[in-house]
Automatic annotation (TrEMBL):
<dbReference type="InterPro" id="IPR013162">
    <property type="entry name" value="CD80_C2-set"/>
</dbReference>
<dbReference type="GO" id="GO:0016020">
    <property type="term" value="C:membrane"/>
</dbReference>
<dbReference type="InterPro" id="IPR036179">
    <property type="entry name" value="Ig-like_dom_sf"/>
</dbReference>
<dbReference type="Pfam" id="PF08205">
    <property type="entry name" value="C2-set_2"/>
</dbReference>
<feature type="domain" description="Ig-like">
    <location>
        <begin position="1"/>
        <end position="125"/>
    </location>
</feature>
<keyword id="KW-1015">Disulfide bond</keyword>
<protein>
    <recommendedName>
        <fullName>Ig-like domain-containing protein</fullName>
    </recommendedName>
</protein>
<dbReference type="InterPro" id="IPR007110">
    <property type="entry name" value="Ig-like_dom"/>
</dbReference>
<dbReference type="InterPro" id="IPR013783">
    <property type="entry name" value="Ig-like_fold"/>
</dbReference>
Amino acid sequence: MHVSVPPLVEVMQGELITLDCTPREHAEHYVLEWFLIATCNSRNGNPVPRITWYRNGQRLDVPMEVTEKGYMTSRTVREASGLYSLTSTLYLRIYKEDRDASFHCASHYKLPSGQHGRLDSPNFQLTLH
């Protein structure tokens, strides 16, 4: 499982991510709308795995439709092997209280024995200025 925060930053365990704001114009005021954009991949599963997102260990209830607070998308690909890979992208509005939050995703899948498995990504945090 791999988690990344675009455009060019890959999140590794223990690595901090900094979001910075640089105004492009000289306006009287700015409205800042920060969105966390992170991607979680689960590869080569059968049946298709399920991905969930977490903030501070609590499951995020993020819809698949665009909302004011955020949303997520998912894409399933059938590989040449016949196995399935799933990519989930999280778009989440970030608030001041998220500056110390810890985020991660988890892939949930069925095992041949009829049991369920879960693989969690490393946690990542944001540094907000």
